[in-house]
# Entry
Amino acid sequence: MHTTHSPVGSTTALHPSLRGLWNSLAQRLERLTPHGLIALAARLALAGIFWLSGRTKVEGWFTITDTTYLLFREEYQLPLIPPEWAAPMATVAEHLFPMLLVLGLATRLSALALLGMTLVIQVFVYPDAWPTHLSWAALMLYLAGRGAGSLSLDRWLGLR
# Structure
């Protein structure tokens, strides 16, 4: 014997006109927020975060400060990479990958590189900052998975 549960009287059933209104609004929002726009916003947001962090590590155009080496030696203390390597690697990464993201060039690679950097920061440096790192990671995963979008050099060069 087959029984069905009727939505009549159920508090979880949506009225058809309300569902139609909601779905119509959702369609409009989808048209107003294409992938290219979301990807551009994600690229610029991440670029801003990492570029500004990179700029705190240098003087002038690109002279790594003694304070940067001190931070890597005393506060960050990465377990596998000596501070004399980690400081310049992080500083270069925080300048190079944001520039690539702004241009939309090698976007997937840049997002994955910054994701790796974020994971290192999360695990070894600031484990209590997971809400911030998770929000960054969401943007990076979106770009790694979906690419730079239509407003990018990747698209212009025919790269996915």
